[in-house]
Amino acid sequence: MPQVILLDLMLPDGDGLEGLKEIRSMHPEASVIMITANAMMQSTITAMKEGAYDYLEKPFDIEELKIVIDKAFRDLAIRAELKELKKTVFETESPQMIGKSAGMVKVFKDIGRIAAKDITVLITGESGTGKELVAKAVHFNSRRSAGPFIAINAASIPKDLLESELFGYRKGAFTGAVRDKEGKIEAANGGTLFLDEISEMDPGLQAKLLRFLQEKEFSPIGSNELKKADVRIIGATNRNLTDAVSKGQFREDLYYRFNVVQIKLPPLRERKEDIQLLARTFLKESIQKLETGVKELSKEAKDALTRHDWPGNVRELENVIKRACVLSSGSMIEKKDLLIDEDSSLSVRDFLEEKLKRYLKDMTKITNFNLYETVISEVEKALMGIVLKETGGNQVQTAKILGINRNTLRSKIKEYKIKL
């Protein structure tokens, strides 16, 4: 009986995922490593849910394959847990998570491994990386998929109201409580409650949430009645909770309760290969929703998207594409339509070329003009002046930063009459 099986997703006479199911039914103890040329989110999640040991994208390094196979032989005991994962239909709302980068494929694998295990999950990542989409993917691939998915952002609700939003209240509990109100925890019974920005909860509320996680019991505000709710809690934060714990801003026991399993979402700047794929998806959606007519991105626009650092991550990219769809006058979306500041992500050469084009357009019209020496001296003067200002006039440090001799720097300061 085979212990480790390599299986391609695309088979000449069938579907690799169907083959995976058949293998798992015949040899449930075997470790199946899926191989594909196009790693997509749902196929990755489905493969992992169906019990695949790992998922490799072509072309892969032979050494990487050897490592995975060796690990498979060592970890055959894990198969007993993975085979419990059940196949469910992924129903998350559009836009779905998209990506073929190693970081995102790992996220898809993690979702597939933990979705069916009814445990608390912590999702970390910068703002705009798609933490709620991960939570939805976990929910809709779990046994709770038929139940409600309710999301609440702790940072968007005043701290004195957040407790009532979570646990509900009874009529007369406080001024304005004219009738009983069901809280989000009770509303999510049988399903999943996604708590975004959990680091923003005050210590008192953290204690009450910890009690619910431990006992699955809570009391609405203004009531001594203990109520039970079968809810899976998924938390998310863009902060470093370890630092928050050390500073006394987040309970250590609550942190460990949440951090049973952690899914880390990579920022968009670390998954550059996903930018064009995401941009095409957002462009297609924007065309349909905004009814702008056919639009496409020019080569310059695509290059600009790839170069940009995306501090706002996927959310920023989506907004840039939507805005460009509206602002672009023709069917072609140009670089200028994106309205993104590229200076921080341009190379020195790109930056200088962009700036010099405007300058040279007029200067080349002037005859008997020493263009080369003028441009070089102006750039040199500006560069030295900026660095001197940043170092507070420290010539030794300035020369070191510029990579020139201190005597050369002194000579240039005198030549260009740079004021210190």
Taking the alpha carbons of the first and last residues, their distance comes to 80 Å
The major β-sheet equals: 5 strands, parallel
Helix content: 40-55%
* Overall morphology: globular
- Kindly provide the radius of gyration, computed on alpha-carbon positions and rounded to a whole number of angstroms: 28 Å
Estimate what percentage of residues fall within beta strands.
5-15%
CATH topology (level 3) name of the largest domain? Rossmann fold
CATH superfamily of the largest domain: P-loop containing nucleotide triphosphate hydrolases
Structure explained in plain terms:
With 420 residues, the chain is α/β, with parallel strands linked by helices. It has four domains: 4-100, Response regulator (Rossmann fold, 3-Layer(aba) Sandwich), CATH 3.40.50; 118-267, Rossmann fold (3-Layer(aba) Sandwich); 276-338, Helicase, Ruva Protein, domain 3 (Orthogonal Bundle); 362-416, Arc Repressor Mutant, subunit A, CATH 1.10.10. The protein has helices at 16-26, 41-49, 62-74, 79-82, 102-114, 131-140, 159-167, 184-187, 203-215, 241-246, 252-258, 275-290, 299-307, 313-327, 335-338, 348-363, 371-390, 395-402, 406-416, and strands at residues 4-8, 10-11, 14-15, 31-36, 54-57, 121-124, 149-153, 192-196, 217-218, 227-228, 232-237, 261-264, 296-297, 332-333. The strands form five sheets. Strands 7-8-11-6-12 form a five-stranded parallel sheet. It has a three-stranded parallel sheet with strand order 1-4-5, with helices on both faces. Strands 2-3 form a two-stranded antiparallel sheet. A hairpin with an 8-residue loop joins strand 9 and strand 10. Helix 2 packs parallel to helix 5 (102-114), helix 12 (275-290) crosses helix 14 and helix 18 packs across helix 19. Mean pLDDT is 84; it is low at 79-95.
